[in-house]
Amino acid sequence: MKGRVEEDLCMGHGMCAALAPGVYEVSDLGTNDMGEFVVTAGSEDAARRGARACPERAILLEEDAHIA
Fold first, then answer.
1. Angle made by CA atoms 51, 25, 52, in degrees to the nearest 5
2. In this predicted model, what pLDDT tens digit does every residue of 5-59 receive, in sequence order?
3. Do 17 and 25 touch, CB atoms closer than 8 A?
4. 13-16 contacts: CB < 8 A, separation 24 or more?
5. pTM of structure
6. How far, in Å, CA of 5 to CA of 1, rounded?
7. Is residue 59 within 8 Å of residue 11, measured between CB atoms?
8. Which of 17, 41, 52, 63 is at 20 to 30 A from 6, Cα to Cα?
9. What is the pLDDT of residue 30?
């Protein structure tokens, strides 16, 4: 699974990292500046939970992305 954070939409609520700290990283200001990232195997449910918690819907997940 791949993900992307639309950094211009992130308002720094930090909910993604609060619910999925192993998946999402936020700056000291609470903003998520990860850009494109790969969700490690076994972390997919946490990634979904964190993305759903984003009030700005700044996190996009590609469910069918296969990494070679």
1. 10
2. 999 999 999 999 999 999 999 999 889 999 999 999 999 999 999 999 999 999 9
3. yes
4. 13/54, 13/55, 13/56, 15/50, 15/53, 15/54, 15/55, 16/50, 16/51, 16/53, 16/54, 16/59
5. 0.85
6. 14
7. no
8. 41
9. 85
